[in-house]
Design brief:
Number of strands: 8
CATH architecture of one domain: Beta Barrel
Low-confidence stretches: none
Strand content: 15-25%
CATH class of one domain: Mainly Beta
Strand order of the largest sheet: 1-2-3-4-5-6-7-8
Shape: elongated
Mean pLDDT: 80
Length: 287
C-alpha cells in the first residue's frame, strides 16, 4: 500500500508541474481525434475488427508534429508567456482604475463641490485617518506600558511579601535569641571560685528572668534578676548578667555577675562567672 501511495504521490507531483500539465492539455487538443477513438470506440467494434483497427486508427491520426512538436511548443509558450501576459493584464487594470479616478475628478469640476475643495477634504480625511492610527498606536503602547508596570508592581508586591515574611522569621529568631524564658526550670548550679578547694553546689529555680535559690526546707530566695540575655545559635553560647536583689541574704551590696556559658552536647551549660569563677548549670526539670 505504501509503494502504491508513493507512486500516486510522484504522479501528482509531476502533474503539478506547469510545463508537464500544459503539455498534457496541448497534446489532448492537437490529438482530439485519437482521444475520441479511445473514448467512444465500443468493445463490439474492437472485437469485430480487431485491436489492430484501433492501433491503425490511432497511427493514422497521429503525427510527430501533433504528438510532440506542437504540444511541446504550446506548453513552453504557455508556461513562459502566461505570467507575462497575466502581469500585463493586472497592470492594465491598475492603469484603468487610476485613469477612471482622474476622469471622475474631471467630471466633478462641474459638480456641486469644486474638485479643489474635494481634494482638500480628501487630504484632511487622510490626515485624520493617520492621526487616528497614531492615537491607536500610542494607546496600544500605553496599554503595554500599563501591563508592564502592573507586572512590575505585582513582582514588587511579591518581593515585599517575601521580605516581610523573612523579617517575621528574623524577628522570631531574634526573640528566641533574646528570650530568657529558655532558662526556665530547675537547675543544679555548681561553681568554684579561685580560692575554693572544692566546688560548691546550689539548687536554683529560674522563672521568666528571676533567679531563685531553693532552701532545704522548701523555701526559695529571690536572689538575682537575669538581664542582658543573649543566645548565639551558631556558636551555642549564652551570655547573661545576674543582678542581686534586696532579698539576697548572701550579698549585702548590689552585685553584677556576668555569665559566659557554652551549651554542651549533654545539655549542660558550662563556662565562667565574672571571668574567674568556673560554673556550670545542669537542668533537673522544666518549670
Amino acid at each position: 500500500m505504501d509503494k502504491i501511495k508513493d507512486i500516486f504521490d510522484n504522479i501528482k507531483i509531476r502533474l503539478a508541474n506547469p510545463l508537464l500539465f500544459s503539455f498534457f492539455i496541448a497534446w489532448i487538443v492537437f490529438n482530439w481525434k485519437v482521444v475520441i477513438i479511445l473514448i467512444f470506440s465500443s468493445d463490439k467494434l474492437a472485437e469485430s475488427r480487431g485491436f489492430t483497427f484501433l492501433i491503425d486508427s490511432i497511427l493514422q491520426n497521429s503525427t510527430t508534429c501533433n504528438s510532440v512538436i506542437f504540444p511541446l511548443i504550446s506548453s513552453i509558450l504557455y508556461t513562459f508567456l502566461y505570467p507575462i501576459v497575466n502581469n500585463c493584464i493586472r497592470a492594465f487594470y491598475s492603469w484603468s482604475y487610476k485613469w477612471g479616478e482622474k476622469w471622475d475628478l474631471k467630471i466633478l469640476k462641474s459638480g456641486m463641490i469644486p474638485v479643489d475643495k474635494f481634494i482638500k477634504l480628501h487630504d484632511q480625511y487622510n490626515r485624520r485617518i493617520m492621526t487616528l492610527e497614531s492615537i491607536i498606536q500610542n494607546e496600544n503602547q500605553n496599554l503595554e506600558r500599563i501591563n508592564t508596570i502592573s507586572q512590575e508592581n505585582f513582582t514588587l508586591k511579591q518581593s515585599l511579601y517575601d521580605v516581610k515574611a523573612e523579617k517575621e522569621k528574623l524577628d522570631i529568631n531574634l526573640n528566641d535569641l533574646n528570650n530568657v524564658f529558655v532558662l526556665n526550670g530547675y537547675w543544679t548550679n555548681t561553681f568554684k571560685e579561685q580560692n575554693d578547694q572544692d566546688p560548691r553546689k546550689e539548687k536554683i529555680f529560674i522563672d521568666k528572668g528571676k533567679y531563685f535559690i531553693t532552701q532545704d526546707l522548701g523555701g526559695m530566695i529571690h536572689a538575682f534578676d537575669i538581664i542582658d540575655f543573649f543566645y548565639n545559635r551558631q556558636s551555642s553560647k549564652i551570655h547573661f548578667v545576674k543582678v542581686s536583689t534586696a532579698d539576697n541574704v548572701y550579698l549585702k551590696s548590689k552585685t553584677y555577675l556576668v555569665n559566659n556559658l557554652e551549651i554542651q552536647e549533654d545539655g549542660i551549660l558550662r563556662g565562667d562567672e565574672n571571668y574567674d569563677t568556673k560554673i556550670e548549670y545542669k537542668k533537673i526539670q522544666n518549670s
